[in-house]
Design brief:
Layout (H helix, E strand, L loop, with lengths): L1 H40 L15 E13 L3 H6 L17 H4 L4 E5 L22 H8 L4 E3 L9 H13 L6 E3 L5 H8 L3 E3 L2 E9 L20 H11 L5 E7 L10 H13 L3 E5 L7 E4 L4 E4 L4 E3 L5 H4 E13 L5 E18 L4 E7 L11 H12 L7 E2 L5
Parallel strand pairs: 1-2, 1-11, 2-3, 3-4, 6-7, 7-8, 8-10, 13-15
Antiparallel strand pairs: 1-12, 5-6, 9-10, 12-13, 13-14
Helix pairs in contact: 7-8
């Protein structure tokens, strides 16, 4: 009997121990389940990366500009090659190392590029070979003004030939001022171009036609200036572009100052939102200045770039460089400025009676054998250019 009681006690102890183990296991499991559930319920805390403060972004566009390519018969005769073609590249070889350094490189094609098929011709109704354009493209020029008083010298066909030539080079060159349809004019005067993160529009007008008016209904052939036309064109692009550039064929021939009409038009264009105005037609250099509280820079005339005109005033031209700067601030506001203008004089020199071996020289590269009175001329024309802007800097990169 005693033995049975001992066995029963042992069994009871074992059962109690078993139950304790089960209860402990259930407790551990419940605690574990509760912890897991709790983890699921609690959202994960995101570890925030430390953000860098937003900084303004700056974009820059370097611009280089020269004046008129006025191709007299002596110039294209000098460019004639032994195979019957034309090569104007040697005439630009002193300028190419300078011009090729810049982003936008401008010149005014004074004479229409109608090609030899229309017959090359001299003053008063010019026609020039396509190879003129080839030489300028080779030297890095990619912004070309075509609206001039000589646009209609070879009538409508001259313009058609000219525009078709430039169309072949649209991957390299932006041109304005001549078109062969109203639709083309509408499309291209609304065009926005972009380089180095800066959007720009380019328009070209002439106030002179030499009495050679465009046919009625074909006014698109030569972009003759009017306030109304310019205002409408500028309105189409000024809110889309960071900067509007206008080339103006204006002024009084051989006058070393800006005339009243130039002054009025420049202020009108500045009021419309144009920030850079590039002048041509007088065939001599004229002053430069800032308008509109420094928002608009005006070059009244760059003078001749290359020609066979006579006299030092007409053989002296101006080349200029400047920077277009765009700053996008931390609040995404945009500021665009035309800054740091630099100027340098150039000279067209020829030999053998003044009719052979034409070449354009920066004044600093002229020696006294090339131009004996170069120092006096330099000071004279420098003073002309600085008349309205005495703080203008002299010396263009590479010259």
């Amino acid at each position: 009997m005693a033995k049975k009681k001992v066995k029963l006690k042992r069994k009871a102890k074992g059962l109690i121990l078993f139950l304790l183990i089960v209860l402990i296991g259930l407790g551990v499991y419940s605690a574990s389940s509760y912890t897991q559930a709790k983890k699921k319920e609690e959202p994960k805390k995101e570890v925030k990366k430390e953000e860098k403060p937003k900084e303004p972004k700056e974009y820059n566009l370097s611009v280089f500009m020269v004046g008129d390519a006025l191709i007299h018969s002596a110039v294209y005769t000098d460019a004639r090659t032994s195979d019957g073609g034309y090569d104007f590249k040697p005439m630009l070889e002193k300028i190419k190392p300078i011009s090729s350094k810049y982003d936008l490189v401008y010149y005014n094609q004074e004479t229409v590029l109608g090609g030899t098929e229309l017959g090359l011709s001299n003053y008063p109704r010019f026609n020039s070979p396509y190879e003129v354009g080839d030489a300028f493209i080779d030297a890095g020029f990619n912004l070309v003004s075509l609206a001039t008083n000589h646009t209609m010298d070879k009538n409508e066909q001259g313009v058609i030939n000219s525009v078709n030539y430039w169309k072949k080079h649209k991957d390299k060159v932006v041109y304005s001022g001549q078109w062969i349809s109203a639709e083309e004019r509408e499309k291209e005067t609304s065009q926005i171009y972009e380089k180095n993160g800066i959007k720009y529009a380019f328009l070209s007008y002439t106030t002179w036609t030499n009495g050679l008016e465009t046919p009625v209904g074909k006014e698109y052939l030569n972009n003759v200036y009017s306030d109304e036309k310019a205002k409408a064109d500028i309105a189409k692009v000024k809110d889309k572009a960071d900067i509007v550039i206008v080339a103006m064929h204006w002024g009084t021939e051989y006058y070393l100052g800006a005339d009243r009409d130039q002054d009025r038009i420049a202020k009108f264009l500045a009021d419309q939102g144009v920030q850079l105005i590039i002048g041509a037609h007088p065939h001599v250099v004229e002053p430069v200045e800032y308008l509109n509280d420094g928002k608009t820079f005006v070059i009244y005339s760059l003078g001749n770039f290359i020609s066979d005109q006579e006299g030092n005033e007409r053989l002296t031209g101006l080349m200029m460089s400047l920077n277009i700067k765009k700053v996008v601030d931390v609040d995404d506001s945009v500021t665009v400025t035309v800054e740091d203008p630099h100027a340098e004089l150039i000279y067209t020199k020829s030999y053998y009676g003044g009719k052979r071996n034409f070449k354009v020289y920066p004044y600093p590269q002229l020696d006294y054998n090339l131009l004996s009175n170069k120092d006096a001329l330099y000071e004279k024309y420098k003073k002309v250019v600085m008349e309205f802007y005495p703080d203008l800097k002299w010396g263009v990169t590479g010259a």
